[in-house]
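Hello Y.,

Per our agreement to keep a running log of every chain we model this quarter, I'm adding this entry. I've kept the format consistent with earlier entries: sequence first, then predicted structure.
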Amino acid sequence: MLAGGLGTRLKPRFGDLPKGLAPLGGRPFLAHQIEWLRGHGVREVVLCAGYGAERLEASLGDGASLGVTIHWSREPEPLGTGGALRHAARWVDGPALVANGDTLLACDPWELERARWERGAIGALALYQVPDAAARGRVITDATGRILEFAEKDPTATCAWVSGGLYAFSPRLWDLLPAGASSLERDVLPALAARGALAGLEREDAFFDIGTPEEWERLERRFAS
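Predicted structure for the entry above:
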């Protein structure tokens, strides 16, 4: 789980609180996310932590209270999402689910791994359609679900498919991650798409991203209702 971000856009509301500890229904966001994974049979979680790692670990501990075992992979310096995954390689043995630490989905994550395996891909992404994609990068696929490219943000974009921040990867990914700092989104995934090794699974269920105060408020209203 990628939980090392600074959460810059949430600072006006939560100050220096790590984004993963943003409260939803009085509990940390990451606690909800881990419980979602546990509900689908996940029992081992690797948390890639950077900013606020000590506070995250103090809150979540070893994961026993959430019904999982948490392994903590602390970045010695900012490594980006790709570098954080490479740094966590010691805990990876076989295919892995990777989740952004600020998204919450309603899907069964194992459907994504099944889609990756059936298509013989190195990676697969859960894709969600949004009515306004102006502030998001868009994902372009062909008729078979193979990801062709990642389009840059376009202020005129309307309805489009975007990444839901959930990935399924073959163990081969860790051999392809560059040394040092890198971005999964900018350096790794476009290269996999260019070689035809990346699949997309279009989803119709709920998708939440707490990266902005507005999106956090939308999800908080859901938990409060």
